Amino acid sequence: MEFRAMSRLIVISNRVQPAADGAGNQGGLAVALSAALRESNGIWFGWSGGETDHFTGHINFQRHDGVATATVDLEPQDVEEYYNGFANRTLWPLFHYRIDVAEFERGFAEGYERVNARFAETVQPLIEPDDILWVHDYHLIPLGAELRARGVTNRIGFFLHIPWPPMQLLLALPNHRELVEAMFAYDVIGFHTRDWLDSFLDYVSAELPGAVIGADDIITLNGRSIRAVACPIGIDTQAFRDSANQPNALNAFQRMRISANGREMIIGVDRLDYSKGLQERFLGYERFLASHPEALGRVFLLQIAPPSREDVQSYREIRAALDGLSGRINGEYADVEWVPIRYVNKGYPRDELAGIYRAARIGLVTPLRDGMNLVAKEYVAAQDPEDPGVLILSRFAGAAEQMGEALLVNPHSAEDVADAIARALAMPRAERIRRWRALMDGVEQEDVLWWQRRFTALLAAPDPEAPADRAA
Ligand code: ADQ
């Protein structure tokens, strides 16, 4: 399934972050989308991250290493209601099963609709008849419907990077039906896993009585058919492996080894976000220390967690809670030569990160809920094939569906996490190699280019079984 270069691709996402060719410091998503955009001479459209007093729809066109970008500024009220509000205080928590922190405000929903309409209005004049459009993530669910309402008949795909919630949770969203019906404006909708896709189908069967779910997850509603697909994202495995062998990575690896001073290192790398299960992780590690006194002074946890979304209260709260928890655990167990948790609130260049992953005996990836989780894949890709570390992975990360050779844990259970740490530390080299090899095969085969090609191929080629009706 090759991407057909004859159609130009237009990528639309909340933020626009193109990657330079072969750049070492970019995430895999930016690399894959940039490659597809270069190949098809496409455009990446989205919010600039900047603000303006009055939205004018003025587009700032730029070119970054062969990738054309088109960005718009938003009004402060848009940012508050659409981005900080509906996207990050309503949908993000609800879709990560955190109905307890989700906030439902009419103003947020209005801002979300308004910005999606503004995006549609602004991007429409750029669209040519043969273009295919690929919309990304929860910020822009209604964008396809807004485009159809303006007469756009191009193929439009949508990919959700976060989980799709169980039906009973989604029902708590006041405008749930409208949101789901808007998904029917797309031609292809993608999820990371079968689980998220099944939750979507559950909702459709229960709440949209006219919908028919056919073979290959083709769903028909009111005469329009869309194809739903589970298409797990990967990392740019080759580039990540290469960067693990660059001087910066080797340097970081050496420095970590020296600073570890013979102790085993456990690594955690996450945006500071309540979905990542950081408090539960610290508690699981504390349980491990309490039940394995022989490990005191011989292991440490390096948790790298750069702050994110600090305009949102729940993110400020989790930061304060983690400061307190790490302080308490260190206060309880540290001695003059050893602290059990090194807790660092900043980002690192990707090549350094690769070296740090490689120096860690355990990759501890324990989100409470995660659409996929790329850190798990990066940890695997960075390992030394002769002496690989062990991945401990939450069964609630989308990545668990592909990564069954990891030690899968329930992140809510401190005992489960503690037992997995003990098991990983004691794991013989032969078993570590066997598990790592199986994981690495998957990370190599299903990388980010595979993901991008698979999705765009489905989108570019209308499904032969699907009815030809593409009217809005
Ligand atoms: P995120 O929630 O951001 O992504 P994740 O998939 O783990 O989560 O990706 C995070 C990326 O940021 C990784 O590439 C990681 O290396 C990088 N990163 C994290 N902390 C860093 C640090 N301190 N320094 C440098 N880099 C750091 C969302 C969804 C996920 C889904 C992705 C892609 O929430 O479930 O996997 O999109 O679809």
UniProtKB/TrEMBL annotation:
The lineage's top-level taxon is Bacteria
Share an example GO biological-process annotation for this protein.
trehalose biosynthetic process
One Pfam family from the UniProt entry?
A: Glyco_transf_20
- GO MF annotation: an example: alpha,alpha-trehalose-phosphate synthase (UDP-forming) activity
PANTHER family from the xrefs?
Answer: BCDNA.GH08860, TREHALOSE-6-PHOSPHATE SYNTHASE
Q: Which family does it belong to?
A: Belongs to the glycosyltransferase 20 family.
User: What is the protein named?
Assistant: Trehalose-6-phosphate synthase
Q: Which organism is this entry from?
A: Edaphosphingomonas fennica
